[in-house]
């Protein structure tokens, strides 16, 4: 990947766009474009384009379908090309973090995308044009936008972000002096950065001040100068955004994370709400997606975070770590309401540190106090879990922060009856640990936990509070808080760390940092996810405990209803059983009077009842090893399914056991009895829930009727003398094969000098000769080939399916080389020969019967003219 200049971000393009709107002059836009050139700040959260004319390209999810459904929505996406974020390849396909995330959204929504490039002669102009396109409604959405109150006046934002970008220190892939773990042990670090990077400069200074590291900065005018300063050893690292990729460099340390969002023009909430709901679904079903996409597109190298032998020895020899818990904020960390045990994502990380590094730990709960720093000291803990990565924690509490193990968005949580735009005089609920770090105002109410803050807002005791994107959904679900609404409150991500109490053991901090940094995003996500699920038993217990009276009344009511329904049901069943018994007795009398047999198969008991025929034949029961006595008017067959399936054909067995058709005509063939044709009329009987419980029907002997039909069918389609297909049937069936291109050849066969046979030996001998000829032709060809008598001494064969010329010649030679023998009127054997004319047909090419016959007849003429007792095969014409 080629090195590239840092592009102006959507954040600054959007900020200047707002400034231009307020100035209300076209000159302002040109001024902003110039400013953007100097503000080449690598907060590139929106896809950027190379210099080219504006164009639009459509693509669908996974680019596998050429036509969208009639009701498929087409969403226009504005973008600027940037490798790793959203880039159009030379073959017209797209790739990048934003593109992949859009594809995941489309899998839920069914959307189709039209990507529209922002025009402009340079990056600055394209950045401004991109924001204008969104504001003017030329596109439906854009990605990579950070949140601010000012931008929210002009654009619609979802609650959920789809990624986070960080300010980062880049070091060479080889021979680097800074890693994620040793940075905090360095006394001085030299960093090169762009002279125009004011915002990132402030973040860099703040980060180093909070970590107690001396910072030396080298101002540069270009990316190339920054990289060169590191390669020559003038600087230890250079400053950029982690989503900006540089060949032979990687981001060693990241900080100051900013979540970024998809945005839409003001008023287009439908698309934003759909995106918001879909991101929420993606976060629930695939919580590691953002991390995996980040790793795929932005993690160029992976440092070695394995612990050394000395570090493992240090951890093993270290005394048990006392881990203080200040705040309960499920699912990150909390104590079980039922068992009191510590649980949550933090416990998962502590267990990982214990197994990976060899530390042992104990949990120390720090009780609420007006002085948090003193409470931590009095608890005599080594570190505090679940600390926010803020300056207050570092400076006021004198704690050193580890690498973060969680990152969340900060949310404003307010009562649905409160206007979030007018919170100035409203009451804010604050958990005690946050209140101890700031001055209490007149409209601030302090509670012991985050959960109690949210409950207070839900009940109207407070108007709003602040929490995170993990805690809020958890407590809304667990505590059924239906009066809460949320909004993103900050572009900064809330990072959760371990805070080590001073004086800090450097080895301890380094081992914790390496262990956390060594976790892949998938492993870290798995630990967090597996320890963040709401315990189902606890949720049910909590609901019952909170609604004990309602649950008891509901249970009693349900029990009474069930008892009443069971009583009614049993009474109905008793009456129905009595009625069925009486009805069965009547029908059994009727069955005994009929020559047909009636039957009932019980699915539950697997028994078959078949009425005894009145003087007629027992068609089926004896074949299934029936059990009966003379006093009963029916045969009883137990284990009927297996017996019938063993004795009868599948078609007959299904008619008794699971009829697919109302009427089934099939032949009954038994080893010791001649074949008979039976007609079985049967259907399912269902209970009141439409569940089949039995099959009932009757059996009729239709042997005479079927034999007559089969005989008529045979006569209608076959020649009476030879048994071959008659000319009409042959023409119809061969014509279908020929027209569908499924015939390999059409042959016409004619006996040589057959008139002489009739004149010499008589017509009876001639008929015998024709019969023997038909048998010889039938034996020479396959059973699926069509063989027919066209009339007199002329026969025809239509080869079904493709056949090679060699095979066709072989079959014709079989007939020509073996004259047909037949007895004359005196019983003496005579011979008759055949001439064959045929047309070979290509596979898959249709031809009419008339054309094929005409060509085969012409070939027969050639065979006759060449001396008879031979064959002639033509290739097909195109005169059809």
Describe what this molecule looks like in 3D.
With 880 residues, the chain is α+β, with helices and mostly antiparallel strands. 39% of the residues lie in helices and 26% in strands. Strands 1, 2, 5, 6, 7, 8, 9, 10, 11 and 12 form a ten-stranded mixed beta sheet that branches. Strands 13, 16, 17, 18, 19, 20, 21, 22 and 23 form a nine-stranded mixed beta sheet that branches. Strand 28 and strand 29 form a beta hairpin. Helix 1 (10-23) packs antiparallel against helix 2 and helix 2 (26-38) packs across helix 4 (123-135).
Kindly state the percentage of residues in helix: 25-40%
Report low-confidence residues grouped into runs of 5 or more: 1-69
Mean pLDDT: 83
Q: What percent of residues are in strands? A: 25-35%
- What is the CA–CA distance across the termini? 63 Å
Structural category is alpha+beta
Number of helices: 28
Largest sheet: 10 strands, mixed
Count of β-strands: 36
Shape: elongated
Rounded to an integer in angstroms, the radius of gyration calculated over CA atoms is 45 Å
Summarize the structure.
The chain has 880 residues and is an alpha+beta fold. The protein contains 28 helices and 36 strands.
Structural features:
880 residues, alpha+beta, ten-stranded mixed beta sheet, nine-stranded mixed beta sheet, 28 helices, 36 strands, disordered N terminus
